[in-house]
């Protein structure tokens, strides 16, 4: 049996339900927008999309400072699961001077924290031997720091030079990297190749 009052009553609930869905969708969209564009100071990162860095917890960063109540997170080195990302660790150590600090004393705090993890990584990695010459045109940061006298800063510079100037044609081009003089080149020349 048809009841016009009942049908009209159900129509109002459908309209209210649709409005609630629209409001919920808009709130979720706004939340995503704030997460992506509204968070300040996420630190330098190697090959990680900005959204990935923004989703990291504060524990994944070496230091979190506050600039007038706004968190400024420096040097992400752990992944979203809290596991050490060795490439990222080397990158943030090698690019630490590029960070802008609210309190300059926190730079030393971050450096000590990161170096502790780097020392553990280096101790574990030194047990492995380099097999044959290292191709400097595709070597990762974790491979580059295994070379004699190459630490995080020089490893980052080697990769950045490679990315800016395409491939190394000869190993002698390594001397064009800022910080690699004849002495360091002599120490690594027998361990590297361009193919």
Structural write-up:
- The protein has 195 residues and is mainly alpha-helical.
- The longest helix is centred in the first third of the chain and has 34 residues, at 4-37.
- 48% of the residues lie in helices and 9% in strands.
- The chain has two domains: 18-126, no CATH class; 134-193, Orthogonal Bundle (DNA polymerase, domain 1).
- It has helices spanning 4-37, 50-55, 86-94, 105-125, 141-144, 152-164, 182-188; strands at 61-67, 70-76, 134-135, 192-193.
- A hairpin with a 2-residue loop joins β1 (61-67) and β2 (70-76).
- The protein has a two-stranded antiparallel ribbon with strand order 1-2. The protein has a two-stranded parallel sheet with strand order 3-4.
- The protein is built from seven helices and four strands.
- The relative contact order is 0.09.
Task: Jot down its keywords.
195 residues, 4 strands, elongated, two-stranded antiparallel sheet, 7 helices, mainly alpha
Gyration radius (Cα, Å) is 25 Å
Provide the spatial order of strands within the biggest beta sheet. 1-2
Write down how many β-strands occur, each being a DSSP E stretch of 2 or more residues: 4
Helical run tally: 7
Q: Residue ranges: pLDDT <50 for 5 or more in a row?
A: 30-43
Global mean pLDDT:
82
> Distance between termini?
84 Å
Strand content: 5-15%
- What can be said about the biggest beta sheet? 2 strands, antiparallel
Order of helices and strands: HHEEHHEHHHE
User: What is the number of independent domains?
Assistant: 2
Helices and strands: which structural class?
mainly alpha
Residues in helix, %? 40-55%
**Quick one: overall form?**
elongated
